[in-house]
Design goal:
Helix content is about 65%, strand content about 0%. By secondary structure, the protein is mainly alpha-helical. The protein has 2 domains: about 55-65 and about 85-295, no CATH class; about 300-385, Orthogonal Bundle (Helix Hairpins). It has a two-stranded antiparallel sheet.
Length: about 375
């Protein structure tokens, strides 16, 4: 009996091994014949195809930039060298002049880095673009792909934005990076505001201690204010539009086409009067100011029967068993966010300043009710103790 059991066990093991070896052999034989009939290099990296792909990307980039080249925007004086933009032409010419000048080593090194940037632009990828991608993720916790960076860089190059300085001095590689990054920040904010979600919105909300809806309103106000439709008396039109109850469901940014957005963004990037790049911190400050403005204007309704404990607790988002310290902490935070003084630097109609005062008054009334309630509650517990 034991002999039969052992024999059956060995037979099963042998069958299993035959099955495994057969599967491996079948895979090997199938792969061999596939390579034999279809070409052994089919599943390997095809260098020729890679080169063709990169050439296609290069051609697409040239078409996107406009390859109708003339003397002013493409050929040097001898007609031997073609440039796709005046920007590239001027950077190349400057580098040629410096090649024999050993005293300007730093400028020459910087210009060589700009040449790497132009190379990245042609291929749509490279060290320069990867560096910007990492910076965007590190600074603003938002993801930006290489295609977005490439398209935006091409847009700035086509518009010759890297030649905006009046004194004729060329921008350094760091200044070029700043222009690209600042523009990507503004474009990303626009896209996320339109979609009503995104990491950049979360980053701004957390850094300012505001709700996401207030950041969304601040972003939309920032972009719409730069439209011609809202240039004159924009505040009167925009504030009620963005305070609507259905705001979160419907974006007002749909009216902005991509080309118009790019134009607005480029105008925001540089200050032509002072001949300088506008720092990114100034955009963030402006957007934050508008977000805080909507925090002040987001109406805190006062019930017809007056405030009571229940309503006051709802306003402070607290429960009945909260402590007096918690009440004080929440009030301090809300008072800082909703104080009407936040509106003093903004040119908005008087009626909205009145609304902010009304909201702050309701907040103070609720604070008085809650502090009195907690003090009584505390003294009652002490008496019972």
């Amino acid at each position: 009996m034991e002999f039969k059991t052992e024999l059956i066990f060995r037979l099963l093991v042998a069958l299993f091994l035959i099955y495994v070896v057969g599967k491996i052999a079948a895979t090997f034989i199938r792969g061999f014949f596939t390579d034999f009939f279809n070409g052994s290099g089919k599943n390997k990296i095809d260098i020729d195809q890679m080169i063709k792909k990169q050439v296609r990307i290069l051609k697409e980039a040239q078409v996107a930039q406009g390859n109708d080249l003339n003397h002013e925007n493409g050929l040097d004086e001898k007609g031997s060298k073609k440039f796709k933009t005046n920007t590239e032409k001027k950077y190349h010419m400057r580098l040629e002049k410096l090649k024999e000048n050993s005293s300007k080593v730093d400028e020459k090194k910087d210009l060589e880095k700009v040449m790497v940037f132009f190379d990245n632009l042609q291929w749509g990828e490279g060290i320069f673009f990867n560096k910007i991608k990492e910076k965007m993720e590190k600074k603003f916790h938002t993801s930006t792909n290489l295609n977005e960076i490439s398209r935006w860089s091409h847009t700035l190059l086509r518009e010759e934005l890297f030649l905006f300085k009046k004194d004729g001095k060329l921008l350094s590689i760091n200044e070029i990076e700043r222009l690209i990054e600042n523009g990507l920040f503004l474009k990303k904010g626009f896209e996320e505001a339109k979609k009503r979600k995104g990491k950049l919105i979360g980053y701004l909300a957390n850094s300012e201690g505001l709700q996401r809806i207030e950041i969304l309103r601040g972003l939309e106000y920032f972009y719409l204010k730069n439209l011609k439709d809202f240039k004159s008396g924009g505040e009167e039109k925009l504030i009620p539009l963005l305070l609507k109850k259905d705001f979160i469901e419907k974006s007002n940014l749909e009216v902005l086409a991509q080309k118009k957005l790019d134009k607005i963004t480029m105008n925001l990037l540089v200050n032509r009067k002072s001949d300088s790049i506008v720092p990114l911190s100034s955009y963030i400050k402006e957007i934050s100011e508008y977000a805080h403005m909507f925090s002040c204007l987001n109406e805190i309704p006062k019930p017809k029967g007056g405030l009571d404990i229940k309503v006051a607790l709802e306003m402070f988002n607290l429960s009945e068993n909260c402590t007096l310290n918690e009440v004080k902490s929440v009030y301090k935070r809300l008072a800082k966010l909703k104080h009407p003084d936040r509106l003093s630097g903004l040119k908005i109609p008087e009626k909205y300043i009145s609304l902010a005062n009304h909201n702050f008054s309701n907040l103070q009334d609720a604070y008085k009710i809650l502090t009195n309630f907690k003090k009584k509650d505390h003294s009652t517990k002490n008496q019972q103790g």
